[in-house]
Amino acid sequence: MKFDASPETQFISAVYSLLLGFLLGILYNIFKIPLYILIKLTAGNKHYERFVNIMIVINDIISSCIFTVVTVIFIYAANDGMIRYFMLVFELSGTVISRFTAGKLIRKLSSKIADITYGIIIFTVKSVKKLFKPIIAYKRAKDAERHILRTINNS
Q: Which pLDDT belongs to residue 2?
């Protein structure tokens, strides 16, 4: 296959690269939604700070791997495997545009989703605690009774 280097083809490649970068930027923000939820759940707890940081790194590594594979497949499909640096520049530009346009909206929605999810999790935990409270109280009473009986028998 012969590569077509006409200006029209390069323009179309640039537009598709810009669009791909924009979509990858949106996808990156969507990937961060679980992190926002995790940060909301562990806020103020120093014990989970390191865990959250590790999860952020893992999320970024997975996102980078996926985006790299998508970019390589796109380059192979659009240019028969020839790397055209302007395509990478336009893809990066699309990602930056996404960050400052749709990315802001997605981050606001992510915050709302994190708040709603946090509320659901807290409600569920409180409901489960309330459900098991009599069982836990009974077990504690039995443990206290056994302890008292052991203390009496040992004296």
A: 55
